[in-house]
Inverse folding.
């Protein structure tokens, strides 16, 4: 009797925690304390070198389906957007109090709140109401500038198995001679990496895994791990040069990476170079601002209070701008759902304040070729560019989405162009996926991740192409081209035209040519 | 730069040297040296790279006055040299990039003109015009094959001036020369951004001549 009571209490606690976690996901601040910093001291990072034989992750789903058992039966969640809330921006001059009240009444709203680093409201609605229907109804109001569901974004990469330690991507765009002109920019330039976080801190965090998870449709359920301590370390090849870190997924200032994507992207932007270790990065002297706006699988497993919705991404953009970033890298986005006025507004906010924005074009060429919605603004906004990917042969990568939004191309890797070899990808140091992604093992071997062990991996995707452009922008800023519009113009003018003459949907204006842009113009040539 | 300076001065001196014996046969020959300023027509391009579209020029040459009226022929050369930096131009905004750049322009001008000798024995106005050939050299740091420029462009010029005979063999004059050298610029670089293709401009020159 007492045993069954204890079990019942345990289940009830678990359910309560799960409901608390989910309600916060669909709602807004304040976030529950779903993780705790145990210690800021940690053992030194482990460098496991090039991982040629690790498990190959399948390309990430677009978008990733809900993982947690408590979310799987929520029919309102189809993976494209969160249920239970919408994003609303009222027009300037509207009486906010009255507008909010009448809006709430119209969509049976329960609460509304303007989060930090946002000029919009999150209006919570009934779970039974379709957010797209609610948003459409709100858009018809005279006092609403825009309304949209909280579409979910994801990273834009396709990891591949590594074979060779060879960064073909930098010679391919003549970086050696570009670095002669501008050796890696300086710490005056801050590049914000809006991503899954960055391995920027030595620390141990305590998480509480309360709900079983199912990683793949029809796959096994992995048990809840309970309370686990996860060790984190600074990526050795990124050094200690981070500024103003911010985590919008866990709503704190510790945007640690539990996925590996953000750390890999940061490596392409500014991996330590000429240090006799590992690999190189584009702008290896810049400071990096880790801004976590995308939840990785482990964040989902641990019940992060927020996910990578449009409002979270928009807040990340505004945060980066307000905290001194000169370049924002967005190797993220979504192909599903409607427009993203929230993010469009934030990107405009960035460019108007002198911040250059690079956005991945998407990886859907063979899956419908739907462009990244977040990149659609770029062609009409001087100072923001959408980036496609080329492989080792400098031909457009098989996955790189072709669309009118593509403005530039950069190396993103394509293992098909290297005969199926992993060396066709982009090599950078990131988290050791072998020790991180224990959810790729059988349930019996499922265990807490380690985020203090690192290795060199080939990744491919427009996610990998985009940080080449962000690093390039940092070099141009250091060289003296400081206006976002001028940076974009310099990149386009110097680009090596590929494909049909002039701009095209595969390569945009062409493959980036940093040396030509950095060298600028003489009188006659 | 020093070598070119010496060469141009030698032209002037040689011109002066041959002038004296030939004058006795009714043909006036004289050499001259000149210094002046050039306002380049590609003003926005020069301004972007050098911070100014005007520059100092110096040179020399020789002129032959034929015995029929005021007809004369001349040949001269001058030089403009300046150091600036490479830039990027976006609309009307110019972003200096801190990469040193040097330009050397050395035109050769062949002129035919007319001297109005009858107006005053000591103050001789003149007009002329002719063919110009501009040597243009542009070099900058971090250049590889094909990046630097070393080319010659042809154009024309017209001029007007007045010479004051300070002594029998010594003249001091001032002249204005308008030159046009189309299609020398504007294909690439800053000049393309500003849509300026003319390497010529307007120069103001102070000339000191020796001879008759």
């Amino acid at each position: 009797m007492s045993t069954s009571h204890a079990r019942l209490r345990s289940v009830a606690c678990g359910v309560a925690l799960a409901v608390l976690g989910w309600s916060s996901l669909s709602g807004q601040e304040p976030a529950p304390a779903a993780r705790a910093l145990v210690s800021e001291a940690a053992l030194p990072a482990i460098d496991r070198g090039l991982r040629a034989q690790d498990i190959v992750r399948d390309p990430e789903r677009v978008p990733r389906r809900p993982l947690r058992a408590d979310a799987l039966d929520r029919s309102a969640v189809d993976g494209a957007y969160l249920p239970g809330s919408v994003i609303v921006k009222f027009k300037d001059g509207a009486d906010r109090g009255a507008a909010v009240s009448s809006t709430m009444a119209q969509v049976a709203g329960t609460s509304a709140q303007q989060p930090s680093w946002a000029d919009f409201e999150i209006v919570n609605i009934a779970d039974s109401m379709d957010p797209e229907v609610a948003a459409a109804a709100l858009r018809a109001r005279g006092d609403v500038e825009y309304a949209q569901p909280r579409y979910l974004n994801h990273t834009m990469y396709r990891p591949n198995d590594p074979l060779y330690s060879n960064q073909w991507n930098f010679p391919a765009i003549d970086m050696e001679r570009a670095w002669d002109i501008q050796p890696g920019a300086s710490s005056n330039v801050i590049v914000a990496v809006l991503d899954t976080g960055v391995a920027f801190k030595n620390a141990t965090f305590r998480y509480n895994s309360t709900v079983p998870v199912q990683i793949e449709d029809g796959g096994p359920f992995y048990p809840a791990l309970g309370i686990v301590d996860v060790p984190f370390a600074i990526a050795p090849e990124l050094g200690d040069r981070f500024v103003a870190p911010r985590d919008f997924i866990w709503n704190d200032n510790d945007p640690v990476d539990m996925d590996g994507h953000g750390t890999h992207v940061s490596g392409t932007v500014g991996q330590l170079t000429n240090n006799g270790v590992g690999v190189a990065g584009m702008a290896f002297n810049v400071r990096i601002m880790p801004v976590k706006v995308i939840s990785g699988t482990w964040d989902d497993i641990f019940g992060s209070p927020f996910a990578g919705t449009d409002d979270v991404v928009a807040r990340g953009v505004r945060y980066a701008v307000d905290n001194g970033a000169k370049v924002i890298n967005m190797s993220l986005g979504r192909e599903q759902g409607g427009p993203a006025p929230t993010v469009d507004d934030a990107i405009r906010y960035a460019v108007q304040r002198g911040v250059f924005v690079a956005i991945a074009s998407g990886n859907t060429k063979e899956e419908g070729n739907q462009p990244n919605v977040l990149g659609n603004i770029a062609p009409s906004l001087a100072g923001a560019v959408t980036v496609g990917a080329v492989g080792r042969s400098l031909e457009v990568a098989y996955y790189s989405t072709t669309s009118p939004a593509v403005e530039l191309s950069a190396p993103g890797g394509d293992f098909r162009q290297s005969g199926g070899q992993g060396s066709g990808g982009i090599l950078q140091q990131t988290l050791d996926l072998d020790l991180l992604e224990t959810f790729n093992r059988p349930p019996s071997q499922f265990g807490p991740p380690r985020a203090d062990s690192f290795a060199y991996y080939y990744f491919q995707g427009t996610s990998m192409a985009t940080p080449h452009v962000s690093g390039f922008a940092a070099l141009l800023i250091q060289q003296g081209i400081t206006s976002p519009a001028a940076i974009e113009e310099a990149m386009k003018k110097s680009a090596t035209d590929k494909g049909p003459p002039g701009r095209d949907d595969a390569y945009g204006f062409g493959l980036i040519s940093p040396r030509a842009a950095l060298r600028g113009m003489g009188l006659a040539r | 730069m020093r070598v070119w300076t010496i060469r141009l001065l030698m032209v002037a001196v040689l011109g002066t040297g041959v002038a004296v014996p030939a004058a006795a046969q009714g043909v006036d020959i004289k050499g001259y040296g000149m210094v002046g300023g050039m306002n380049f027509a590609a003003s926005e391009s020069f301004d972007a790279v050098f911070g100014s579209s005007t520059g100092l020029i110096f040179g020399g040459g020789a002129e032959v006055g034929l015995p029929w009226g005021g007809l004369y022929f001349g040949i001269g050369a001058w030089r403009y040299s300046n150091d600036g930096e490479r830039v990027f131009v976006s609309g009307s905004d110019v972003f200096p990039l801190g990469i040193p750049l040097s330009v050397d322009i050395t035109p050769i001008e062949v002129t035919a003109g007319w001297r109005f000798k009858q107006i005053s024995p000591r103050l001789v106005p003149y007009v002329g015009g002719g063919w110009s050939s501009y040597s243009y050299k542009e070099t900058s740091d971090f250049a590889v094959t094909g990046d630097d420029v070393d080319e010659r462009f042809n154009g024309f010029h017209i001029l007007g001036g007045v010479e004051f005979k300070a002594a029998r063999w010594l003249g001091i004059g001032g002249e204005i020369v308008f030159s046009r050298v189309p299609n020398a610029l504007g294909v690439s670089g800053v000049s393309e951004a500003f849509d300026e293709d003319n390497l010529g401009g307007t120069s103001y020159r102070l000339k000191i001549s020796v001879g008759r």
Notes: The first strand of chain B starts at residue 28 and ends at 40. Chain B touches chain A at residues 42, 45-46, 49, 84, 86-90, 93, 95-99, 101, 103, 136, 138, 140, 142, 144, 147-149, 184-185, 187-193 (CB under 8 Å). Residues 45 and 191 of chain B are 5 Å apart (CA to CA). The helical segments of chain B are 2-22, 43-50, 189-193.
